[in-house]
Amino acid sequence: MSTSQNQQIQITKAATTKINDVDFDNLTFGSVFTDHLFECDYINGEWQTPVIKPYAPFLLDPSARVFHYGQAIFEGMKAYKDDANAVWLFRPDENFKRFNNSASRMAMPSVPENVFMNGLNELLKLEEAWVKKGNGSSLYIRPFMIATGTGVMANPSDNYKFMILLSPAKAYYAGEVKVLIAEHFSRAANGGIGAAKAAGNYAAQFYPTNLANKEGFQQVIWTDDTTHTKLEEAGTMNVFFRIKDTLFTAPTSERILDGITRKSLIELAASEGINVEVRPVLVAELVAAAKEGTLKEIFGAGTAAVISPISGFSYQDVYYELPKSEDTYASHLKEKLTNIQNKLTEDTFGWTVKV
Amino acid sequence: MSTSQNQQIQITKAATTKINDVDFDNLTFGSVFTDHLFECDYINGEWQTPVIKPYAPFLLDPSARVFHYGQAIFEGMKAYKDDANAVWLFRPDENFKRFNNSASRMAMPSVPENVFMNGLNELLKLEEAWVKKGNGSSLYIRPFMIATGTGVMANPSDNYKFMILLSPAKAYYAGEVKVLIAEHFSRAANGGIGAAKAAGNYAAQFYPTNLANKEGFQQVIWTDDTTHTKLEEAGTMNVFFRIKDTLFTAPTSERILDGITRKSLIELAASEGINVEVRPVLVAELVAAAKEGTLKEIFGAGTAAVISPISGFSYQDVYYELPKSEDTYASHLKEKLTNIQNKLTEDTFGWTVKV
After folding, report:
1. Which secondary-structure segment (H or E) carries A124?
2. Which of A131, A216, A313, A316 could form a disulfide linkage to A139, CB 3.0–4.6 angstroms apart?
3. Is B141 within 8 Å of B53 (Cβ atoms)?
């Protein structure tokens, strides 16, 4: 290992690389990490010197607040490589802003922009060999922050650790996705933390999703917890519905994540001349449209899968199969968006940022 | 260190003890831990050999599922020492059952009863010098489980770690507690995880509690997230209201924790001839009773504080001060319950269990 100082980041390089052991054509999402990670500790009110160092397990006290009271947030981003081997990010400012919005809701400190952005940029420069070219290839980026302060008193931690991990990813195909519309379980409360990318929101979904899996459904479409009549998210993604030729998605709220893929698709669809309506979408509308044959598509939208088409949904024990088509908004918008992300087409939106 | 095998628990003793450095008269709740902890790992579907070993930090992978998706649950219990130096637990079977109910809701494996109970008993035997005599003294017990499996895919972990920590505690006096009734924020959704002792539920409360603190209130009384008209919990405790001479508390639900102190107080109050009504309690009732002078007490109930009296509440920017009295249900029931827990009076309920 060699240690050097770069833009106030203390960099310790790994003695060897794992890259030659990785089969980049057969990657399981989120399972392989690059040689280095970025880390910055927050101790008694101050961010410490950020470091880039070899990816490795780290020590935590058994009473660390993250284990007991769940102060933990994250982001999901991707880096892409263009034909000239330049590395690009997609709307990183949006992830940075949302990360600190999540931090605020979870009573955690804001990460300074230079810590987040310089850390990410320097880490990506060091790991650029891990970013592969071509549509569908990317380097998934996982910034996260956890409470490291010790003691099992139920109040916010004094100390935190902010880290960035990198994981190479291929295009994400979930296979056929049938969904169950939630009639009892919920992912978010009014006045709760549904709009934050808080770790606990995800664990809360596992049990209801397991139950859906047992009934043959891959995901749950979450509804509002009060009436279960409004369609809000699909699994860990935002959700879009195409009825006739209009694309519908729910407005963001304190129950619904302000997805970056979601907002990009809304802009992109509008620019393609697709009529987009952002308003609460009712289960009753979806069922009525499915019955009369005007429901053409449902798809999830998120960083990992970009767009994940849904083949049918179940509600009150009735299964509604969607029409199969090659010419869908989902496939059209996914191609447009991934072409922008992968720098295969001009980015007229100014969404891509060079590392 | 010496290692031995005891009832299939592998015990490694610490070379030295910290006990002589601890000021047992001046303890901050949850900040000091005993010399040893209990640990049992769950790996690929099987619980491994449980161990008791010196309390120390442990290694986790940066991609450990607990950091990213919040699979983490806990319990709070206490051990007490009687005049004959025997160590006692209070309703440990209830904590064990609730722990596994929480595990189920968070898609985590059940901890076998012998792992939980033998582990706790053996750890307490080893640490019995840390249990101090006298009303108010106890050894706080923190069983918890975290997801240790690696990889940032959003599904349940394969691997988990179950641990028990011990922390000496004195009687817990919060000082004067004024509360703010939640009009916007919430701790639990219908169909959510409010009834589970899931780590994420606690972090979600920190921000609204911080806001209340800034306005001069120590805690928040949580209301239902749909209408904010029903009184549900106080901070991290269940909540009781005395109107005239009747004690009211909300029924447990998927939004409200099935508190062991709560259910013990309901039984104890009834046995003392106090009229107890378990039914939804409305904010409007509380305000009306405060205005007409029939609201005599509000108190929180939980393992850490046992009973925490509340001196007044604010709702819609109006502050209602409660009457001051020495002769309260809170002080009477707290004395009765702590006398049972500390073995200073006969336990006619069969709640106490010898270690």
Report:
1. helix A113-126
2. A131
3. no
| Domain annotation covers residue B325 | yes
In a domain, residue B210? The reply is yes
CATH (domain of A228): 3.20.10.10
Nearest to B30 among A67, A151, A226 (CB): A151
Show the tokens assigned to B229: 């008209």
Euclidean distance between the first and the last CA atom of chain A, given in angstroms as a whole number: 25
Answer whether B61 sits within 8 Å of A59, measured CB to CB: no
The pLDDT of residue B5 is above 90: no
Q: Domain range for residue A315? A: 178-341
Q: Report the gap between the CA of A311 and the closest CA in chain B (Å).
A: 21
Same-domain pairing of B211 and B164: no
CATH number, domain at B105? 3.30.470.10
Contact A192 B225 (CB under 8 A): yes
Please report, to the nearest 10 degrees, the dihedral formed by the alpha carbons of residues B236, B242, B247, B250 taken in order.
Answer: -40
Residues A12 and A101 grouped into a single domain: yes
Same domain, residue pair A44 and A184? no
Give the integer Cα–Cα distance in Å for B217 and B210: 9
Query: Between chains, do B202 and A154 touch, taking CB under 8 Å as contact?
Result: yes
- Identify which of B104, B207, B226 has the shortest CB distance to residue A106: B207
Q: What is the pLDDT of residue A175?
A: 81
B117 shares a domain with B202: no
In this complex, which of B70, B207, B226 lies closest to A203 when CB atoms are compared? B70
Domain end point (choices B135, B169, B203): B169
- Which of B147, B169, B191 is the last residue before a domain boundary? B169
The residues, ordered by sequence, that sit 6+ positions from A313 with a Cβ below 8 Å of its Cβ are A178, A179, A180, A181, A221, A286, A290, A298, A319, A320, A322
Residue of B214, B217, B207, B210 whose CA lies nearest to B313: B217
pLDDT range class, residue A135, cuts 50, 70, 90: confident
- Whether A189 sits inside 8 A of B225 (CB atoms) is yes
Task: Report the b/e string of A201-215 with b at 16+ CB within 10 A.
Answer: bbbbbbbbbeebeee
* Number of domain units in chain B: 2
Q: Give me the total of CB pairs closer than 8 Å, taking one residue from chain A and one from chain B.
A: 232
Which residue among B60, B156, B163 sits closest to A58, beta carbon to beta carbon?
B60
**Chain A residue at shortest CA distance from B162:** A62
Residue B54: count of CB within 10 angstroms of its CB: 15
Long-range contacts of B318-324 (CB under 8 A, 24+ apart): B319/B178, B320/B287, B320/B290, B320/B291, B320/B295, B322/B290, B322/B295, B322/B296, B322/B297, B322/B298, B323/B293, B323/B296
Return the bridge partners of A36, or none. A54
Nearest to A140 by CA among B151, B156, B7: B151
First to last CA, chain B: 25
Residue A349 lies in a domain: no
For residues B195 and B124, membership in a common domain is answered with: no
What was the pLDDT predicted at A134? 81
- Given an 8 Å threshold on Cβ–Cβ distance, is A70 in contact with B72? yes
* Domain-embedded: residue A353: no
Within 8 A of B60 by CB-CB distance, chain A residues are 57-58, 60
> Quick check: B67 and A187 CB within 8 A?
no
Interface pTM, i.e. ipTM: 0.96
pLDDT digits (tens, 9 = 90+) for A36-84: 999 999 998 999 999 999 999 999 999 999 999 999 999 999 999 999 9
Judged against a pLDDT cut of 90, whether residue A246 lies above it is answered with: yes
pLDDT value at A1 more than 50 = no
